[in-house]
Amino acid sequence: MTRYFIIFLLLVSSVFAASFRLSPSAFEGGAFDTSISITTSLVLVQGSQTYVNGDSICPSTTTTSSGGTVTVEPTVTATWTPSYIEAIWPYCTGGGCPVPVAAPSASSRNIEWISPSKYNTHKSKGDGDPLTTNPANYNDLGTFYSQPASYVVIGSQGYSDKRTNANVFCKGTLEIRDGSTTIATYQLPATGTPTITLSPGTHQISTRITNVECIAAAAKYPLDLDGLYFMMTYYTANQPSFRASGEGTSTITVTVEGGEDRCRFSDIEISATSSIVDEDLTLVRVTIRNHESPIIVTGVSSSSSGFTVEPFEPSACSILGFSSSVCPSTSNGFNVETISTRNLYVLMENTGASGGTTLRFDAQTSQPFCGAPVTCNDTVSLGSNVALRCEIEPEEHTYATNEIAIFEVSCTNLGGNAIPCTGNDWFLEGISGRILERENSYATVSPTSAPGTTGQLVYRSGFAECRSDINVIGQDDPNAHYVCEFIPSNAALNTSESQYFQLNCFEDNQRSTPNNADYSRSPGLDGQISNSSTRGTTFTGGNPSQGILIGEGTWTNSPHYPTIGAIAEAFIIVAGGGTQGNDTIPGNETPPGNETPPGNQTVPGGGGDDPYDGSSLFCTIGTGPLNVYPYEVSWVSIACGPGADLICNLVNWWATGMASITPPSNNFGTMFNATGIPGEEGVIHAYVEYEINGITERGECFKGFRIQEPICWEYS
Known about the structure:
Blueprint: E1 4-7, E2 10-12, E3 15-19, E4 31-46, E5 49-51, E6 56-57, E7 68-86, E8 98-100, E9 109-110, E10 112-113, H1 116-123, H2 135-141, E11 145-153, E12 158-178, E13 181-187, E14 195-198, E15 201-221, E16 232-235, E17 247-256, E18 265-274, E19 281-290, E20 295-302, E21 307-311, E22 341-350, E23 357-365, E24 375-382, E25 389-393, E26 396-400, E27 403-412, E28 418-419, E29 425-429, E30 433-438, E31 442-447, E32 454-461, E33 464-473, E34 482-487, E35 490-494, E36 498-507, E37 510-511, E38 516-521, E39 527-533, E40 536-541, E41 545-554, E42 563-575, E43 619-621, E44 626-628, E45 633-640, E46 650-657, E47 659-666, E48 669-674, E49 681-692, E50 695-707
Parallel strand pairs: 1-4, 6-17, 10-12, 26-33, 35-42, 44-50
Antiparallel strand pairs: 2-3, 3-4, 4-5, 4-7, 7-9, 7-14, 8-11, 11-12, 12-13, 12-15, 15-16, 15-17, 18-19, 19-22, 20-23, 21-22, 23-24, 25-27, 27-28, 27-31, 27-42, 29-32, 30-31, 32-33, 34-36, 36-37, 36-40, 38-41, 39-40, 41-42, 43-45, 45-48, 46-49, 47-48, 49-50
């Protein structure tokens, strides 16, 4: 009859284990029921050092390679655990045929690894080889384990408390791998101890068993090798299905260092801040960059005995008179591992020096796996000509959007001596604005942020950094002194078309002509600026573009120093095409209906000294000079506020000279009639009320015109 070998495998983590049982009654032959477990393990050894998962390996000292030479020592454990053995022997007529009928469970036994050739020889005998009586087969396989059993001899008495002998025999290949590369193979039972050199970097060293196959064999006992009753049976059918990727995998991950630790770093940025409570104290921040192995900076020293230096204590920030914005939050950067960049904070005290000094920072490698720490240093020169402190005057300033103020700066060296500031490194933080001039001693600045915005003007020279606080208010604020506006405030021009922009400026709400006026254009606006004066400038469109025309009106010996003037802006669009005349953007308002205009009241103040001026702090009429013909009825628009961007709540219209107001008129504009002949002039006036920031403002503006000669003129 046929005998069956039943094995079922269960893999858990890196351990292979199988367990399955079938009742012999399900077959006509016998059954072998067992669990198989295969595991591997390994250690990496370098000299007397054994490495575990996550370790770092130093480069080899016995090879010229920059890698690490290690020995891999793998082990393999393979066991089977019988839970039941029952062999049903065939009926025989010769008498004395033994039948072992039962065997209780036993503990785990080692699998016998045999060579592929020996394995193939025994497997070829087939499952349930008919009662082989050749002792050579038994002796060739090697180790067997005893299993209790009882025997019944047909036609004779039974024998109890006897035993059978059984074992599991397997072949397989042990692989040792570095990542996905196989570096050694062994036919089990040999395992080997290969020595390999690993290049610098991270490696996953692993072992696994592949090409595994197993059979089992059982023999009756008493063992009478020469007698009639010796018999052995093979179980080779129903082979277990081992994974193709290998069984019992074990892995260790290690990192090979790239060579000797090297120590090298440098300073890349330095700043210094003076104490507000003790002028002899300075907080120096040095940003360093590490170029080699991880390091820690262990200390700082000064080349001058006139200075004491030490790592800054963060908790003493406010006590020593430094702002929290320049102090370290937790660590001063010393004795902490540095991999890339790190800030070092040093407290310096002048104890009698008048010049400068050189700071020296000492460091060492922080992870000396392969020897003693390596040391290095970096020096930072704070010489007598190097600015370490600076001050901006004024330290705080409040002025309006688009006003211009001048800020002056002075510098001192580490010893407190005044020295020239170097460079023009000015910039704004927290607010937007224009820095109109940048010099090593001053800057002129105009904020563009909305009223209520606060920020700082910052200057840097050498290692010095200083700041001035800026508070932005509105142009209508009583503390605002200067306002400048362009008339018109916007224009659409064709290529080569010119437009004159009148510069109207006010000092303390009164018309005032600035002492100086400079004009420029924002990047992106293409064109030429010409015919400039303190009263305005001409802009000629270039290539199609758009941007801002900028006018800077400043007053010499300003009584409101450091505020010295204001900025005017006009938005310009340059389109393609040739010259089409001096057209401007009128706002394209549709005139309202024929409302009854308000009375022609006489209004106070008024207007300035230019009859063609169309703007004030309060309102703007139209967008440019009016070109009208005799007895022509025209429409002009009006907008309120310094920026001509508010709707007027109330407008009273009237006319002087050769003009008359003609309905309709309202708070958006008016119709007017030129009542004279060519060459005569007239002025359109408006008195307005509007609301800005919850405050009602009242004032006057006007627009002048000159009557033009028509192309065709009939006299009667």
